[in-house]
């Protein structure tokens, strides 16, 4: 039976996303900020809130080690933050300057993918913060092996890509009202060579 542990009421607008690392909870909001909490007692960290985006923050995600947080916004940027100091490590401007709605860091922290409201996807080299390539998407998730990712579109399509943004598989009309989110199963299924994505 689930029970309420804590209620956080620090944001001044809608909370659009939340993400956990092993030690932290991050929440992002229409108030243009990201707030960082200790996940053991839900106390807010001294450098929180993080301010830097010019408009609503739509999504945030931690690197696997928990040292970095990526956030994306209507201001057409994805920002990378240090979780040691709260400082901005990088500002990644999306090609075409469209509002960025979704971002994900690969489990090996080598790549970051971001998706904008115009349907474009940008694949970044995470250590160097350099753009590798771009294509189309609105939802995304990396496989546990970090060697491929799945994207979803407002048209309901699911597409599987490799790290060179070569399309490996396309599932047309997977959802009749569009794909709003997608994720891989956390481990490879027994007897299979590929991880399997789940979408809604």
UniProtKB/TrEMBL annotation:
Signal peptide (from-to): none
Pfam family name, one: WD40
Gene3D superfamilies documented for this protein: YVTN repeat-like/Quinoprotein amine dehydrogenase
SUPFAM superfamilies: WD40 repeat-like
Keywords: Repeat, WD repeat
WD repeat start and end residues: 50-91, 104-134, 141-171
Alphabetized PROSITE patterns for the sequence: WD_REPEATS_2, WD_REPEATS_REGION
PANTHER family: WD REPEAT, SAM AND U-BOX DOMAIN-CONTAINING PROTEIN 1
Name the record gives this protein: WD repeat, sterile alpha motif and U-box domain containing 1
Native source species: Oryzias sinensis
